[in-house]
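The authors assume throughout that readers already know how a fold can be written as discrete tokens. A single example would do more here than another paragraph of explanation. An entry of this sort, consisting of the sequence and the corresponding backbone structure tokens, reads as follows:
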Amino acid sequence: MKLSRIVGVGLFLSAGLAFGLESDSEQPVYIDSNNAVYDEKSQISTYTGNVVATQGSIRIDADQLVVHLKDGAITKLVATGKPSRFKQLPAVGKEEMHGEGLINEFYPDKNLLIFMKNASVWQGDAKQSSEYIEYDTKNSLLKAGESNSDGKRVHSVIQPKTKKAQ
């Protein structure tokens, strides 16, 4: 394994992701893939082939994961797949949040997830589907659709709350 590849993996593992439980960012990052390449000049790590990345309660499954670094810190992750999947436990006692899309971008410093192309985000019985979904993990704010959506619509499912027996 080339030194640059080792450095790239080391930088990624030490940088951490910033979503999910507060303790997630303190956990090591584990990445399994068929191939890994680190371009030291551009500070980009590319993982391909059945990629699984985990950190604490966070899991990303993708065909390819591209990690953009700056001074050893992750600035952006781009996961692609058919689809690429993401899940996290937002807080103890809450249901897992799931998201998927053909292209997913993650911005740890902004606590922002963007799911694109055949995108869906769901938690429990609530589900949003659109071509474009933004999820602010810090404020639990979800925005679906785009102003120039060319007639594409946002589909939402909200299940009724079950009534308690008296």
Q: What stands out?
A: Residues 160 and 166 are 18 Å apart (CA to CA). The longest strand covers residues 73-88. Residues 3-15 form the longest helix (13 residues).
